[in-house]
Amino acid sequence: MSSNPLQQTIEALAKEKGVNQDIIISALQDAIEAAARKRYKNENMRARFNLDAGQMELVAVKRIVAEVADPATEISLQEAQGLYGDEAEVDMEIEFPRPTEDLGRIAAQTAKQVIFQKVREAERENIFAEYNQQIGDVKNATVKRFENGDIIVEIGRIEAVIPRKEQSRAESYNPGDRIRAVIKGVNRSAKGPQIVLSRTDPALLIKLFEQEVPEIYDGTVMIRGAVREAGDRAKVAVFSRERDVDPVGACVGMKGTRVQSIIRELRGEKIDIVEYSEDPIAFVTNALSPAKVQRVSIVDDGDRVMEVVVEDKQLSLAIGKKGQNVRLAAKLTGWRIDIKSEEEKRREVEAQFEGLEAASTDGVDGEPESEDAGEPLPYTLPGVSAKIVRKLVDAGLADVAGVAAATAEQLSEIPGIGEKTAEKILAAARGDDAVTVEAGSDAESAS
After folding, report:
1. Do residues 11 and 123 both lie within one domain?
2. Which residues pair with 153 in a beta bridge?
3. Could you tell me the residue range of the domain that residue 179 belongs to?
4. What is the Cα–Cα distance from 178 to 175, expressed in whole angstroms?
5. HEC string of 317-331?
6. How many domains does the chain fold into?
7. Is residue 210 in a domain?
8. C-beta of residue 430 within 8 angstroms of C-beta of residue 415
């Protein structure tokens, strides 16, 4: 450290405020100039710090002109050459030393205010730059006071705020309590940068796991997502980069020691640790833990909608208190999840079948009965739909006798007629109930 008193003061102030010495010197120069302008009202004053002498120097600057209009700031070329010889030229500047001792008490007070203002601005900028780079980091803080529901805390010598919306409803604090919170953001304000902390952000949960689980810290286990409803429940998706490392087991720890320490830090918040999977069905199944899922199906891949069926007794567990479990699972996976019980799904399927049966009349082999819009059929066969008879006529079997004379193999070769249908057709044609329709009349006679 320098032996010069002014230099020592500059160095000490820079260290105390955490700012560069050049900022202090610049503030000092601005302060001396501001004070000098009050003492030497019309002159163009300039201050500078002499590093060799370790003191401030004050000069009045005059510009060389051909004809002087303002004697306070200008000097004639003739007068300048008389002082400096032929080197003096128009538009050059000449400095005239001025004493700093007679600046006066008011000027000194002004200088002091300028110095403090400049140093304070530099200090604010340093704080903003420092903490803006630490967004997402967890900090230890001490509760200082409460303002309109917000908690004011201290991080070292810096004050920070935990807004009401960033506080967990399960927590309460008293002045002097130690607290860990994550930096949510840094806001510029007239009073200085405001550091905003959070106890509800998922980033806090992730950082706590990084601190408690060595496998996460060294990158063996990765956190692929975390969601929270602060004070109640959280879900964390983890993935192992090594096949022989169980990611869930690593996070839980021996007898749950690792996760229990995080739960204590979050004041009893329940934490579900689930294994991440690239397969969305497997991921959703895991995310609904602790409920056991029977089956999962993708309803709409584009809109990311899934239907999940669980046992009747697992339904309430899968949905969770006020829908919390399925809501967190949906946030974690990015899929909309529709949960149904087995009984509910069974009733839904039955209703669908009943709707289909009501909308259609069964024909042979389940084919719907339909009126043929073509020419009148030459015959009918009991139990055989008009559509099938039309196929027989189109195949060249123009009467019942022709049908009865055919074999089952021949009939099954006709498109749309299978083996069972062929046997049913032969039984009807060779029975006594086959009817031939007389041309030109609606009368029917037994064939």
Report:
1. yes
2. 143, 160
3. 134-200
4. 9
5. HHHCHHHHHHHHHHH
6. 5
7. no
8. no
